[in-house]
Design goal:
Layout: E1 13-18, E2 29-35, H1 42-56, E3 63-69, H2 82-85, E4 90-94, H3 106-115, H4 118-131, H5 138-151
Helix pairs in contact: 3-4
């Protein structure tokens, strides 16, 4: 949603809006927020950006919002946002529930990067890039590049991707 330069006074997060090119009218807009640190301004900022985008969107359509946390202890819900967060379009995900679980899907492995310890995450990212068909697809590389930039973790594949971090 926003690729503004990082404001060092705010915790690291990543936002994106995604949908396929020329989607059917029934395909909703999907807004994703990944939040690594407690941030009292997350929901005010997220909903302001989301509704501003919808106001200026070329075509009206349904929307979904996905907020990912390494664990829900980092979530801060400010007064006045409980009803917005409770909307059926808003989904909050506690990624700590992935800990210790494995799956054969690349998407699952990408999400595990967020919650794994550094050594495990770097090994997982390297396997994703070099050991799986599609591991060098731009979307996979972009996600790993964002993860590397936001978390200050070692670069597993010499990626030159510039992460979008706020």
């Amino acid at each position: 949603m926003n690729s503004a330069p990082r404001n060092s006074s705010r915790p690291p997060s990543a936002s994106m809006a995604c949908w396929p090119r020329n989607p059917p009218a029934t395909t909703p807009y999907v807004f994703i927020e990944v939040q690594f640190q407690p941030d009292d301004s997350l929901y005010p900022r997220l909903f302001a950006e989301l509704f501003l985008y919808l106001r200026h969107a070329p075509k009206p359509r349904d929307w979904r919002c996905l907020v990912l946390y390494p664990d829900l202890d980092r979530e801060r819900i400010p007064t006045g946002y409980t009803n917005l967060i409770a909307l059926p379009e808003v989904h909050r995900v506690d990624l700590s529930t992935l800990s210790g679980q494995d799956s054969a899907t690349p998407g699952w492995d990408l999400l595990r990067l967020i919650v794994d310890d550094t050594d495990t995450a770097v090994a997982r990212a390297t396997r994703l890039i070099h050991g799986r068909p599609g591991g060098r697809e731009p979307a996979v590389l972009n996600f790993i590049g964002r993860w590397v930039g936001m978390m200050g973790r070692p670069n597993p594949a010499g990626l030159s991707i510039q992460p979008t971090v706020r």
